[in-house]
């Protein structure tokens, strides 16, 4: 059998055939896994709603709606019903003011406006500091626990801002941002779209080394001099 010559046209033809086969294979794999991925995401969402609301017998995702929130954005609300009666709502909220940016949470309220529970969906906060928000605000210790708080009595604020919630130790910025997302969720749930966040931003200063603007109350760990490897901001840790 005569060997096919390695000419440029033959090489291009071979590459074209290989690309077509790979493309068809990838398309088939994507189509095969798409339904499974969507089902997994739907199950995760349903679980997050179930974790933050009173017991319900409807399908909140089928009755979801968007509602205007402070700042011109809108949030998704998932109504929880029992025997046709509204028993609470789950609100998907967020803030971009975390120490490392975006924090997404699912917040649940009962029909009377009490904070039923919360679940952290996404964050990039410092491990061992801001990341503690997943459990910190549920612990019955001092003034950490916000579960069961009557949100009709006002926004949640850390004690450093004149509120009555204990911030995560050495992570005031993450704590402030987290409560900001909670307050935003309740403002949307209650229909108070003009509500102002209970969180108070820190004054800012300038980092003499980098020239970057940073909150003045972010302190360097004077004992160890260690740099936060997660955020790498010139040895600046979250506030104490």
Mean pLDDT level: 79
Biggest sheet: strands side by side, in what order? 1-2-3-4-5
Provide the low-confidence segments as ranges: 193-236
Radius of gyration: 25 Å
N-to-C order of helices and strands: HEEEEEHHEE
Give the biggest sheet.
5 strands, antiparallel
> What's the total count of β strands?
7
How much helix, percentage-wise, in residues? 25-40%
Structural class by sheet pairing and helices: alpha+beta
Beta-strand proportion = 15-25%
Distance between the termini: 79 Å
How would you sum up the global shape?
A: elongated
Number of helical stretches of at least 4 residues? 3
Describe the structure.
The longest helix is centred in the N-terminal third of the chain and has 45 residues. A 5-stranded antiparallel beta sheet has the order 1-2-3-4-5. Helices cover 28% and strands 22% of the residues. Strand 2 and strand 3 form a beta hairpin. The chain is an alpha+beta fold.
List the helices and strands and how they pair.
Blueprint: H1 8-52, E1 65-68, E2 74-82, E3 85-98, E4 101-110, E5 115-123, H2 133-136, H3 172-190, E6 204-206, E7 213-215
Antiparallel strand pairs: 1-2, 2-3, 3-4, 4-5, 6-7
Give a short synopsis of this structure.
The chain is 28% helix and 22% strand. It is α+β, with helices and mostly antiparallel strands and 240 residues long.
Features:
5-stranded antiparallel β-sheet, two-stranded antiparallel ribbon, alpha+beta, elongated, 240 residues
């Amino acid at each position: 059998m005569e060997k096919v010559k390695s000419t440029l046209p033959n090489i291009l033809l071979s590459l074209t055939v290989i690309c077509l086969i790979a493309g068809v294979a990838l398309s088939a794999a994507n189509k095969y896994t798409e339904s499974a991925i969507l089902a997994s995401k739907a199950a995760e969402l349903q679980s997050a709603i179930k974790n933050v609301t009173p017991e319900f017998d409807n399908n909140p995702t089928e009755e979801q709606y968007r509602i205007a929130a402070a700042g011109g954005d809108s949030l998704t609300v998932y109504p929880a019903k029992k025997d046709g009666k509204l028993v609470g709502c789950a609100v998907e909220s967020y803030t971009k003011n975390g120490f490392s940016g975006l924090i997404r949470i699912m917040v649940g309220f009962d029909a009377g406006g009490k904070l039923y529970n919360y679940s952290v969906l996404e964050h990039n906060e410092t491990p061992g500091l801001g990341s503690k928000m997943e459990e910190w605000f549920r612990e019955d210790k001092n003034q950490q626990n916000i579960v069961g708080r009557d949100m009709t009595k006002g926004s949640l604020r850390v004690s450093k801002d004149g509120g009555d919630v204990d911030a995560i130790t050495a992570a005031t910025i993450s704590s402030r941002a987290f409560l900001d997302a909670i307050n935003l969720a309740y403002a949307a749930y209650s229909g108070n779209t003009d509500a102002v966040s209970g969180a108070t931003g820190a004054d800012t200063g300038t980092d003499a080394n980098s020239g970057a603007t940073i909150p003045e109350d972010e302190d360097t760990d004077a004992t160890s001099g260690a740099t936060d490897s997660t955020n790498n901001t010139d040895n600046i840790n979250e506030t104490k």
